Amino acid sequence: MFAVIIADYFFAIASLGSVAEVLRQFAVVISNIALGLGVISLLRIHGRNVQRRLEGRWLYSIVTIITFVSVFLLGIINTNGDQYTWAFNHVYTTLQQTMYASTGFFIVSSAYRAFRARNIDAGLLLIAGCIVVFTNAPIGEVIWSGFPVIGDWLLGPGQLPGYRVLMMIAGFGTIVYAYRVITGNERGFFGGGE
Amino acid sequence: MILKDGRIVAFILLFGSFVLYYLFTRMMEQGKAFKIRTLAPLEALPEAVGRCAEMGKPIFYMPGIGSSLSLSSGAYILAGITILGRLAGFAAKAGVKLRLFTVTIDAMPLIQDTIKTAYAVEGKVEEYSDDNIELIANQSSLVSRYLGAVQRESPAAACLIGYLAYESVVLSEAGNIVGAMQISGTVNLYQIPFLVASTDYTLIMEELFAAAAAVSGDAGAVGPIAAEDVIKFASLGIMILGMVLAPLGITFLVDLLGL
Fold it and tell me: Residue B87 falls within a domain, yes or no?
């Protein structure tokens, strides 16, 4: 099965393409079945929390279950309906963006601790970080017109070689992992442990 | 031409890689010893558990976000779950409470089985509890829940190993606020700087896979990692050759790789 999918990418054989397309559809169906399994797990775990009145969690589990059922029913009725759209745009997206927005404060906290010139490497990082900050802040260009030039170089050609090398290495690692899964050597995938 | 244009060399390289992985696996099965170099984050796992045991506090684990069946995150989450098995063994042995937070609903049975198996191997299956594994509906909810749990329970150590996105900096800073020792690892390039800055140990990019292979330790896992080093050196050689030829206007290497 894996061989068919991989072969379809490389070989121009019409019958192989149609078989691979069917297998890809299988994969979509299987992943959706897994999603259904996950939903059952979610309801089972949170339902058990409510049933056992698990301290500190059962109220949140009630909220989770009620929210899940409500949105699920709205989606079943009409995913393009006003109520479903409202729930997504005005509840889910709003809450998600709120949590996402808090990231900025944590980044500042992390940067305050990380950007210290303890050694040469840290010093270079600090200088590069300051230049990029001044590049993105409008006042940077007012202070010195060279900041955007240097900053854009750092964000572009300066980091591109390192970025590409790391992406290549990640690609190699992914291929190795895929080989181990295909050949059954990655037993953790099948829940077998060590 | 039976092979698609522009993919001939890629096919040869991929097939050659698979042959190399197989050969190295066979070499290891026949007694040739390949060792994965010491990975500091992996070596720090017992230290983290020991710290928790001394302070009487739990250890937190988050195996990343996304789906285990996803192309973008699946492999990394599964690698994180493999490392979780090793940590769960240490935690069971030391009697440390392992608290896990995840949004990967399709991998939930695998996570439960991994931890339960680790406890059973240590003969402490009665100490295993599903209550210590929290399944949260989505990414932002996980951030909120984790932040609250860290503040209330003050873990002595935390591990964030898997596919991480924006929550990496938030969760790692939450651990720093309570003074937890933190071990992290991800393949998401944009989050690595945050993790390196915020955590004590970081598995960078494919070190995550190497760590998962080191945890299992068998020939089928370690052999391909060793073969991968050969491939990396070969790729480095091709890059250096290209760097030398390109300024001279010689394009045969580019043309060859583009076949």
Answer: yes
CATH number at residue B191: 3.40.50
> In chain A, which residue's Cα lies nearest the Cα of B171?
A106
Q: Which pTM was predicted?
A: 0.86
Residue numbers of B between 93 and 152 with CB closer than 8 Å to A: 105-106, 108-110, 113-114, 117-118, 121, 130-131, 134-135, 137-140, 143-145, 152
Q: What's the mean pLDDT when you consider all of chain B?
A: 90
Domain ranges of chain A: 115-168
Domain region containing B137: 40-215
Contact residues, chain B, for A163 at CB < 8 Å: 189
Task: Please tell me which of the candidates B140, B187, B189 has its beta carbon nearest to residue A96.
Answer: B140
Q: Is B51 within the bounds of a domain?
A: yes
Residue of B3, B72, B105 best to disrupt the A interface, most CBs of A under 10 A: B105
A173:B144 CB<8 A:
no
What DSSP string describes A117-166?
-SSHHHHHHHHHHHHHHHHHSHHHHHH-THHHHHHHHIIIIITHHHHHHH
Count of structural domains, chain B? 1
CB contact under 8 A, A11 and B4: yes
B249 domain-assigned:
no
Q: How many CB pairs under 8 A join A and B?
A: 184
A193 and B18 within 8 Å at the Cβ level: the answer is no
CA-atom Rg of chain B in angstroms: 21
Instruction: For residue B64, report the phi and psi dihedrals to the nearest 5 degrees.
Output: 95, 175
Going by pLDDT thresholds of 50, 70 and 90, the confidence category of residue A192 is very low
Q: What is the pLDDT of residues A165-188, one digit of tens each?
A: 888 888 888 888 888 877 877 665
Unique residue bearing structure tokens 């063994």:
B89
Give kind and range of the element (H or E) at residue B225: helix B219-245
In this prediction, residue A132 carries a pLDDT of 85
- Given an 8 Å threshold on Cβ–Cβ distance, is A12 in contact with B69? no
pLDDT at B1 over 80: no
pLDDT on residue A194: 44
DSSP states of B89-132 as a string? HHHHHHTPPEEEEE--GGGHHHHHHHHHHHHHHTT-GGG--GGG
- Predicted confidence (pLDDT) per residue in B105-153, tens digit: 888 888 999 999 999 999 999 999 988 999 988 899 999 999 999 999 9
Task: Please tell me if residue B225 touches chain A, with a CB cutoff of 8 Å.
Answer: yes
ipTM over 0.95: no
B90: in domain: yes
